[in-house]
Amino acid sequence: MASLSFDKKGLGQIQFRHPNGKRHTLRLGKVAKRLGESVVFRIREIVAAIRTGQSVSADTAAWLGALTPKMHDRLVRVGLAEQRINVTRTEVVLDDFVRDYIEGRAKLKPFTRRNLQQSRRMLVERLGARTSMRAITPGDADRFKERMLADYSPATVGREIKRARQFFKAAQRQGLINCNPFADVKGSSQANEARGFFVTRQMAAAVLDACPDDEWRLIFALSRFGGLRCPSETLELKWNDIDWEKNRIVIRESKTKTRTIPLFPEIRPYLEREFEAAPDRAVYVIQRYRGANCNLRTQLLRIISRAGLSAWPRLFHNLRASRETELVREHPIHVVCAWIGNSFEVAKRHYLQVTDVDFEKATSNPTSHMHADGSTPQHMEKKTAVPPAIADCTAVHIPPAGIEPAT
């Protein structure tokens, strides 16, 4: 059926008869006898399979698949193997992949989808929309970071690198690329203390007075005194989420995740007023501003200007941050985080702030200078009296802290 032989130079060859009746010689080259015998065994099985119309064993099929292209071509020429189909991976370009990835995430919130689309635009502008995913290298990822740092803050760059790493990880899991070029790119911290701002109660009162209607006053109060994310959580608030008797509100963070917050006294009057004015069978608390084209940020900027204030950074985020900073002064941190809907680490890095009130509280506390036994140090006793120069000063008007005229 098939036999192995070697010539004087030690070159091996296998002679066999094909089921179609033709005799063939398969030249192996210089190989060890044991290896040649293993090939003879495979040839005999293939010939028998062709004769009987059966499939070869899994081991022989794997052996055929592992042959070098040169050896496989020899088997093709003698009729023992089929021509291999040259399969190459389809070239997927950056813009097409990221678009498909975002559109394929059906459960994304609208604002999350919008943010990912913005990250896609930043990525393709700097790496090229039609660049092959496989052609992007770690060096390209490093250059992307440097170009981003020239245009944006380190916090923004850190966020965009994190999202880019997310996109390429998905491509790697799909087998489109062998490695993630952003895997080792270190993003800057996304915390940006320069953009932190505490919105005082005096400022909040001025903004509430400048609001055009009760619905806008409620939107602002829910952000500043309820700690709601705006617009996502504010616009999803429903009347049946409010338990007036127990003084609680259910906040829908997503379709499946919720949290419960107190019906804070600062927001209750605005809710009651809007409830009385709501039409029959109204479902959502906020009605007028639920349109897709509604830009609450732009409208809040106008209201702040009307109130005679300068706009603070991260308009709605800093309203939540101000509320969380207030609450931790009166309640345990784990309780406050449960109400605001974040973790302690996130609160510490992005929300909690040190304010003037903290300094005033520390310096006005009479117990801060006492000895352990409660007595006052002698050098402090001489300074407890009010200096005559201050006692004789006439009262001066000091504007509320935090309020400054618009420029």
Write structural notes for this entry.
The protein is built from 18 helices and six strands. The chain is mainly alpha-helical and 407 residues long. The protein has three domains: 76 residues, no CATH class; 97 residues, Tyrosine recombinase, N-terminal domain (DNA polymerase, domain 1, Orthogonal Bundle); 156 residues, Intergrase catalytic core (hpI Integrase, Chain A), CATH 1.10.443. A three-stranded antiparallel sheet has the order 1-2-3, covered by helices on one side. Strands 4-5-6 form a three-stranded antiparallel sheet. A hairpin with a 4-residue loop joins strand 4 and strand 5. Helix 4 runs antiparallel to helix 5 and helix 9 runs antiparallel to helix 11. The longest helix is centred in the N-terminal third of the chain and has 20 residues.
Tell me the layout of helices and strands.
Elements: E1 2-6, E2 11-17, E3 23-30, H1 33-52, H2 58-66, H3 69-77, H4 94-104, H5 110-127, H6 138-151, H7 154-173, H8 201-210, H9 214-224, H10 232-236, E4 242-243, E5 248-252, E6 258-262, H11 268-277, H12 296-306, H13 315-327, H14 333-340, H15 344-350, H16 356-364, H17 378-381, H18 388-391
Antiparallel strand pairs: 1-2, 2-3, 4-5, 5-6
